[in-house]
Amino acid sequence: MQVRPHSIKSRPRFLAALVLVPCLAGCFASPGGESSSNGGQSGSRLRVALAFPPAENFSPYGADATLLSRLGVTEGLTALDANGAAAPALAESWRREDDRTWRFTLREATFQDGADVTPSAVAAALTRATKAKPAPAALAGVSFEAKADGDRGLRITTAAADPVLPMRLSSPSLAILSPKAYGEKGNPDPVGTATGPFEIAKVNGGGSATLDRFDDYWGGRAQASGIDARFIKDGTARANAVRTGDIDIAEAIPVAQAATLDKATLKEAGTTRTTSLQLNTKTGPFKDAKLRAAAREAVNSSTIVKGVFEGYADPGAGIFGPAVTWAESKRVKPAGRAEAAEPDGEQITLATYDNRPELPETAQVVQQQLQKAGFKVKLEVREYSRLESDALAGKFDAFIGARNSLLDTGDPVGVLGSDYTCDGSYNLALLCDKGVDRAVTKADGTDGTGERQDAAMAAEAAILGTDAVVPLAHQQIIVGVSTKVQGVVLDPYERTLVGIGTRR
C-alpha cells in the first residue's frame, strides 16, 4: 500500500488533534461508555515501544522526564488542557494572591508507596527540583520558594513575577515524587514513588521496563492492568513490531515506514515539534554571523519536507510552527541579519541522532545543500544518549535536532529562554546575544495571553535574526496502534501517550 504525499495544510491542526486527548481528572471514557474512575474492568497489559531509552536512569529532571509522563508514571501539580492552558492535576485549584505569590489547593491523592500527597511533601519535591544540577528546563531563569499552608494548601512565592507559573508546573520535569524518592545524593528514584496511574515495577537496563497499574490512583483505576515498555531506537523495528502484532503501541513511526502499515493502525496528529539546524555561535566557523547567513541561505526546507518527510510536515517557518495556531498571524520578520559570505570550502562537522529516523536523512540533505553552497561537511550520526553531552558542549559546528517548542512549560517563552539565552540549559547553538536576552526577558515578564504571545514572537524574530537556528520542518505525530487498542492519547505536546482509558 502506498501513501500519497500530501500537504499537512489539508489536515486537522492543533485543536483538532487535541480533541483526541482525554481529560486528565479521571474522566477517560471506557469502551462501554463508563468512566474508568468508576472502577472499570481490568484490561490486558499494554505492550508499548518508545523511541528513546532512558539516558539518565529515569531522572525526572532531564530528558527522561517525558518517558515517565508518556507512560503514565508521573504527574505534576498541573497539566495542559486542549487550549494549552493550565488544568488541574495534583492541584485541584489555585489562585494568584499577588504578583509573586500563588496558592494551590491539593486534591486528596496517594503516592505509589502508600504515603499521602501532603503540602509538605509537594513543597519538598519542588524545592529539590529548584536545586537540581543542571536545572530542569522549565525552571530556566526562575527561582521560587514553596511552603505548606494548612492541610491542603501550598503557597509558592517566586523571586520575580511569573504570570505563567501554573503552566510551568505542568512540566514533566517538575513531577511530584514521594519523600522516599530522594536520597542524600544523586537524582530522585521514581520507581514506586510517583503518583500516576502506572508504577514502575522493574527496569531492565536501557532495554525495557515493566509497569503495573496503581490501583489507588486519584483519577480512578486504569483500564489496562499494566504496561510492558520496550525502548527501540530503530524506527523500522518499531513499525515492524506493530505490523507483526508484537507491540500494541509504537511512537514515532518513521515517515518512510508509514506506507508499510495498514491504514487502520496508523494514527496521526498535529504536534508542536520543529526540526531545526542549530549553528554553533561560540566556536568554529559559525562564530562568524556571515557564514551562519550563508548556511541559512543554502538550506531549502521545502525540499526536506517533500523528500524526507513525504508531506508529513510543513516547511520551517520559525521556532513555532502551524500547530501553534496563533503564531503565524503574530510572526515578526527578523531584522538586522548579516550578509552572507562565501564559504570558500570552510570545513564543518554536522551532527544528528538516529532515534528519529528522519533526522539522519534530513542531515544528508542539509549536508548536500551546504556542500553545494561551498562548505565541506563531515556528517556524524549517533544514538541520542551518546550525542547530547557533546552537542551541549559545543563539540560540533552544526546540529540537527527535533524539539517540541511547548514541551517544557507549555509557555512559548519557556523554550526561547532554555534554548537561546546566555544561561539557557539546552542552548545547542551556544547563543549569547544581549539583544536576544533582552527580548526574551521582556517576554518572560509580560502578562496577559495575547500580549505574551506578541512578546514571544518579537523574541523569536530576534533569535532568528542571529541565524543561530534555521527551522527546517514542523512535524506531525505518527503512532502505530493495534486495531485492538482503544484510548491512545495523541498529545501535540508529546507529554502523554498512555492514559487511564487506554486498553486492549
Report on this model:
The protein is α+β, with helices and mostly antiparallel strands and 504 residues long. Helices cover 24% and strands 22% of the residues. It is built from 14 helices and 17 strands. It has helices at residues 14-18, 65-70, 119-130, 165-168, 235-244, 255-258, 289-298, 301-307, 327-330, 358-373, 388-392, 412-420, 434-444, 449-465, and strands spanning 46-50, 78-80, 86-88, 91-98, 101-106, 144-149, 153-158, 198-204, 208-213, 226-231, 249-250, 266-279, 313-315, 347-353, 376-382, 398-404, 469-481. The strands form 3 sheets. Strands 1, 8, 9, 10, 11, 12, 13, 14, 15, 16 and 17 form an 11-stranded mixed β-sheet that branches. A 4-stranded antiparallel β-sheet has the order 4-5-7-6. The protein is globular. The relative contact order is 0.18.
For the biggest sheet, the summary is:
11 strands, mixed
Report the span from N to C terminus: 26 Å
Number of extended strands: 17
What is the typical, i.e. mean, pLDDT?
89
Note the total helix count: 14
- Fraction of helical residues: 10-25%
What does the radius of gyration come to? 22 Å
Task: Tell me the strand percentage band.
Answer: 15-25%
Unreliable residue stretches? 1-40
Shape, per Cα inertia axes = globular
| Class based on secondary structure composition and strand pairing | alpha+beta
